[in-house]
Amino acid sequence: MIQKKKNIMWLLGVILVSYFVVGFPDGAFTVSWLGIAYDLQGMTTAHTGYILVGYSVTYTLAGIILSWLNRYMKLQTVYLKGLVIMALGFIGLALSTNFTLVLATITLYGFGTGLMASSMNSYMAKHFTARHNNWMHCFWGAGATLSPIIMGHLMAVMSWRAGYFVISGILAVVAFILIISMYKKVWIDEEHAQEEAVNTTEKKRYLSKRWHQVVEILTFFFLGGTDYTLVFFTGAVLISRGQETIETVAIFSAVYYLSMTLGRMFFGWIAKWLKEVPIVRIGVVVAVAGIAVLYLIGNVWGMALTGFGLGPMLPTLVSDTSNRFKPAILSKIVGYELAAFGAGIAVLFFVTSQIMHFISYEALFPLAFSFVTLVFLCNEVLARAMKSTKA
Fold first, then answer.
1. In the chain, what are the helix, strand and coil shares in percent, each to the nearest 5?
2. Which of 7, 32, 60, 98 has the smallest CB count inside 10 Å?
């Protein structure tokens, strides 16, 4: 028993450290893009739209095919392969000489990132709790925060290409750790876990209708579009109001990601006493309060509240999937959830940008409020459906 507990702690350590690098693509690109656009002539801000779509499409595809991949290999193997694909994408990007190659390599590492995110979220939903899943996403936040610093420093002393080579080296170290952990067999035995799941399934009631799955997936679609649009466009709205400048709005993004990480730490801690549904409800209330502050006075505290409230939503909702759906379809559902999250980023970002352009920049905050409300409503519908299965 002691040995088993040691293995679980060792496994958790491997998962947390390795999930740190899943935050690298988002953080590093925000800084490296400045160097890429400067070095590769003819590239403008307009090209980022194509890049975001390419990244989102392959990220979404990775989630869709996770269940199929899981038939032939374990989730931790999918995770390792995703890491290798991400590293190859970084190396390819470092060697790129034109926009076509930049787009192709970012699309490639988008697929790798999607494989890592969907497989590990599925694994955590199967074997761990909302507490652990929130902690894991804290490490994503740390990676998204540290990677721009790494990239910025290397761009100052060498170049963005050197930055991606160094980041690829970090990924190689993480891959080595993963391989060692698999060799040492610290990962939970899937066959034994499936036997336990069968016994649990016989005693527990789950959501079984198709529309239940659709609503679950839509929850992640709306969540995916919420935080990214807020982070990207809030600065533009505040500049248009004359409240902030280009130099000062950068702090809003930093505060958002820091608050999101703190939110995951806090709710991961209280998950020992609170179940998933109440955590989501509290998160929605805090996020809505933050959006209201941004809309009414444009204060940075609004960004802090929004990040803190939205922070635990993704990991907590993923964890609750294991309570709502049978273990046999869990990988498929979680894969679709992460795919919907990626699709929501692309689709709702585009919709928001068009409404802001043709109607008003001020439409951002009502739209964000609508997206968060839809996340809340979808989750409440499923919570009620779960109660009816137990009645």
1. 85, 0, 15
2. 98
pLDDT of residue 9: 80
Q: What's the pLDDT tens digit per position in 231-286?
A: 777 877 888 888 766 666 667 777 888 888 899 889 888 888 888 899 999 999 99
Question: Is the sign of the CA dihedral 319, 321, 327, 331 positive or negative?
Answer: negative
- Highest average pLDDT, of 15-24, 65-74, 81-90, comes from 81-90
Using CA atoms in the order 6, 7, 11, 17, what is the torsion angle rounded to 10 degrees? 40
| pLDDT higher than threshold 90 for residue 122 | no
Distance, in Å, from the CA atom of 72 to the CA atom of 92, rounded to the nearest integer, reads: 28
The per-residue b/e assignment along 49-65, b for 16 or more CB within 10 angstroms, e otherwise, is eebbbbbbbbbbbbbbb
335 token code pair: 């894969």
Q: Chain-centre distance of CA 359, in angstroms?
A: 30
- Write phi, then psi, for 185 (nearest 5 degrees): 60, 45
pLDDT digits (tens, 9 = 90+) for 138-196: 888 888 778 877 888 888 888 888 889 999 999 999 999 999 988 888 888 765 555 55
What pLDDT shows up at residue 250? 64
- Taking residue 70's Cβ as centre, other Cβ atoms within 10 Å add up to 21
How many Å apart are CA 257 and CA 311, to the nearest integer? Answer: 8
* Contact call for residues 223 and 344 (beta carbons, < 8 A): yes
Residues 6 or more apart whose CB falls under 8 angstroms from that of 276 comprise 130, 316, 317, 319, 320, 323
How far apart are the C-alpha atoms of 289 and 9, rounded to whole Å? 37
Distance CA 236, CA 228 (A): 13
* Cα distance between residue 54 and residue 115, in whole Å: 15
How far apart CA 312 and CA 310 sit, in angstroms, is 6
Burial category of 290 from C-beta neighbours within 10 Å (exposed 0-12, middle 13-18, buried 19 and up) = buried
The burial class, CB within 10 Å (0-12 / 13-18 / 19+), for 88 is middle
